Task: structure prediction
Amino acid sequence: MHYYGTQAIDEAIEELKISSSHHVLDVGSGLGGPARYLAHKTNCAVTALELQEDLHNEAGNLTERCNLQHKLTHLAGDFLHLDLGAAKFNFIVSWLVFLHIGDKKRLFQQCCYSLKPGGKIFIEDFYQQSGVTLTEEDKQSYERDLYMKNLPEKDAYFKQLEEAGFMDIQFQDLTGEFLSFVSKRQHEFVENKERHLRVIGQDAYDGLLDFYTTVKRLFNDGLCGGCRVIATKPIS
Result:
């Protein structure tokens, strides 16, 4: 489950008015928590697409244990190079995944292609704060530590979505919420160091601490922002 737990998923359900008649694609579904919650809460059909094979396999096991396999389909693969079907989905949702996909042009084209006319995307993600000059250290942190590629500024988000064919683009700044979360996450991780060391070991602990600290620094330094983006595929 992502940083808001079920809160952001409930907000997506409310905003998009997801119901049992809809088919939703979750891009970068990880272990499938949000996808399972969507299927359970709304009884909609969900396709959960995950790039990493190990996460995909474990997600399928968890879905069977939850007895949701009749509503939830797990697929493994790269969204940029899969044809899931034209005009197949009512909605596409994604939480903290698009920041890792460098080819934003193809990404948004794929989204538009896969949506039914009138369908919408609902994204929560990082964006690049405008007017910021990145140092070489910052650029290395983006790619090496956070696997972020071509992080767009707000205006670029609008342009890329419009060029892909979307309309009615909404951009909500969530930087305050993101900063609060990443700060709390890093603090609580350090506070519970002894427990984490017992469970995951020193190497894993050090790696996660470095990741959490880097993300916190980028938000504290005003380099990154958090956003929610909603956009609609035209009916005609």
